[in-house]
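Hi Y.,

Following your request, here is the sequence exactly as I used it, all 403 residues.
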Amino acid sequence: MDINERLSFFTGLVRCNYNLFLWNYDKDFKLLSTNCPKELISGDMIAVLGFSELLSAHVGQGNRNPLVLDTEFGLLWIAAFEYRDVSLHGMHLIGPAFTGRNTQLLIRKKLDSYNISVRLRSLIFRQLEEVPIIPSSALLQHAVMLHYSVTGTYIDTGSVCFSSSGPQENADEIELISGEHRGVYLAEQNLLAMIREGNPDYRKALDKCISLSSGIRTDSTDNLREQKNNGLVLLTLCSRASIEGGLNSSIAYTLYDFYAGRLEECLTAADATNLVREMLADYVDRVRSSRENEEISVQIQGILDYIAIHIKENLSLSELAARLGYTEYYFSHKFKQETGLSVNAYIRQKKIETAKLLLSGSRMGIQQISDELSFSSRSYFYSCFEKETGMSPSAYRERNARI
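Below is the corresponding structure, written out as tokens. Let me know if you'd prefer a different format.
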């Protein structure tokens, strides 16, 4: 079967359950064909909803995985990318869909604030009633199946990317898949066990949890608030599991405060989804690193923990040595002997790791990040960042931005 035959077969299967439509574009985002009736959603979706910039950024990063496009009003599309050798040949989108059962109500509230006629309002509502509501677990499964139809390759749901076309005050990417919680506890315990172990295969366990349940059941009309609540619950479980896995409790709690604050700042479902992925990866990596450092003495480990907690401050060799009652010479020698790095090099490395998180997952300016991490100047921050990563902070943000 060629791509067109696979897409036809796939969309036929999808429409047995959900009334989703297919849009086919060339590499320049020109609409080639769609089976969506004009009376339902008129116009070229990429142009109307401002998806061009999001798709260009995704392709420009060399990312060939499927992308869930999240609009201001909570309407979602899934995009898959067709390549010929190394060049983009075209894109295929399916949608639109809602994933929150309250999204239609939220759109009605938004429309109430606009000065539009009763006739136009009625027409919009009739169109929205035709848009299916799909659980996020099913949406992710559709994304990997669309990707297979276009590329002929298999991926897991953890590889699906998310992006938002604009700020959303209320949007939800999560909806319960069933009326029961059968199997959720075992899947959750498996995920937490992997976090305790610092096991990088935790993504498979996470996918299993998502396929069974999407978190807390509530009837709130604020779907973004529900998703943030679910993220906070997962954050709490991760911090506890990481402590049980050997991560210093002060670091775990500091990370909790850091990610809880950033979660509250998320404006869209895409922001929250990407942040949760970053959070899990960070916890697992830190647990794994702490297990690898078991031969480090209690004294030096205590200093490493202190540096992690106070990484945004202006830390000095004399201050750290004084905390242990050591001379600067003895402390420097012992620190490098056990960690393989000088004190200043280690602090610089950890500051840059934090800077990378802020560049990829926040809207803070580069000068603001430099000040936040107590670098003496913007130019010094640039030189340190380039020394550690091989690229400038702005280049790193452009390549790795997740919001």
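The beta strands are 21-26, 31-34, 67-70, 76-84, 87-97, 161-164.

Thanks again,
Q.
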